[in-house]
Design a protein that fits this description.
With about 260 residues, the chain is of the alpha+beta class. It is about 65% helix and about 15% strand. The chain contains five helices and five strands, in the order αααααβββββ. A five-stranded antiparallel β-sheet has the order 4-3-2-1-5, with no helix packed on it. Strand 2 and strand 3 form a beta hairpin. Helix 1 packs across helix 2 and helix 1 packs parallel to helix 5. It is elongated and about 105 Å long. The mean pLDDT is about 80.
Length: about 260
């Protein structure tokens, strides 16, 4: 007697293989996403300090704080994307935008219609007997023709050869472009704050009653520095004044104050 192959076992093996491949894929994705998120947060933080002319080496951050900066950087990306989408929507609902969209849609419909008509006419003029087409297809089928099979294998291999370098290049560009964009975003946001401070000085924030500036006072209560607080650590303080950025040692007798309007 011949034993019939167990289809249920083969199905279970295939499902197990698919499950394992999915787990490996998600594991690799998480492994890549973690350092990528770290680079985005670090780039954003470096951009913030660079806007004040301060090196990030003077104020190193903990890993958890860098991931918090990643959260804010991605949030700013989404806000920017939302603003762009809103601008496009407003333009599309205006008269010039509506005319442009209607014109492009009409042009696309006409172009597609003409191309389909030309293809249909060409197909009719070059129509071949179905039996002839069937015979040619059978002859060129890679299962029946070794030459066709060899050509197909070389053709597929050439795609793989081009795909691998393209995938590596795309991954490398994506790996570095997001931290660079985060750096630029942090730099631009803080540069806008610096320019506003240079023009208006210490003013009240729009969303609260707190002043934008901080003051550093000594043990006598004298103000030794006043401006935008850039960075603060257990050892050093960085503050931006109209004359430039200052980094100085933090002392126990120093008091950092902020005015409430």
């Amino acid at each position: 007697m011949t034993e019939k192959p167990n289809s249920e076992n083969s199905t279970n093996e295939e499902s197990i293989k698919k499950t394992i491949s999915k787990k490996l894929f998600f594991t690799a994705l998480v492994a890549l996403a973690t350092p990528a998120a770290y680079l985005i947060g670090l780039g954003y933080y470096q951009g913030v300090l660079a806007a004040y002319g301060i090196s990030s080496e003077a104020f190193p951050l903990a890993t958890t704080d860098i991931y918090i900066h990643t959260y804010f950087a991605i949030g700013y990306f989404l806000l920017t994307a939302g603003e762009i989408s809103n601008t496009i929507f407003e333009w599309s609902t205006s008269k010039p935008g509506a005319f442009w969209i209607i014109g492009l849609i009409t042009l696309s419909i006409l172009t597609t219609y003409v191309s389909l008509k030309l293809k249909d006419r060409q197909r009719r003029t070059n129509q071949i007997n179905p039996k002839t087409i069937n015979n040619i297809t059978k002859y060129l089928n890679p299962k029946n023709n070794k030459l066709t099979k060899a050509c197909a294998l070389i053709f597929i291999s050439s795609y793989i050869i081009y795909f691998i370098p393209a995938a590596i290049t795309t991954s490398a560009v994506a790996w570095w472009i997001f931290p660079t964009i985060a750096y630029k975003k942090g730099y631009d946001i803080e540069t806008e704050k610096v320019n506003t401070f240079k023009k208006l000085g210490c003013t009240k924030e729009k969303t609260s009653t707190w002043d934008k500036c901080f003051t550093v006072q000594n043990e006598k209560g004298e103000v030794i520095h006043e401006g935008l607080l850039v960075a603060l650590s257990s050892k050093e303080i960085a503050i931006f004044e109209k004359s430039g950025s200052y980094i100085f040692t933090r002392k126990d007798e120093y008091t950092i104050k902020r005015k409430n309007h």
